[in-house]
Amino acid sequence: MHEGTMEAVSFPEVSAEDALTGILRAGATRLLGQAIEAEVEAYIAGHAELRDAQGCRLVVRNGHKDEREIQTGLGPVKVRQPRVDDRRIDANGQRMRFSSAILPPYLRRTKSIEELIPWLYLKGISTGDFSEALMALLGPEAPGLSASTVVRLKQVWEREYADWSKRSLAGKRYVYFWADGVHFNIRLGGDGESENRQCILVVMGATPEGKKELIAVQDGYRESAQSWKELLLDLKARGLTEPPKLATGDGALGFWAALRRVFDETREQRCWVHKTANVLDKLPKGKQAKAKSGLHDIWMAETRADAEKAFDLFVATYEAKYPKAVECLVKDREPLLTFYDFPAEHWIHLRTTNPIESTFATVRLRTVRTKGCGSRMATLTMVFKLAQSAERHWRALNGSALLADVIRGVQFIDGLRKDAA
Question: Kindly report the CA angle at 306 between 358 and 317, in degrees rounded to 5?
Answer without folding.
Answer: 85
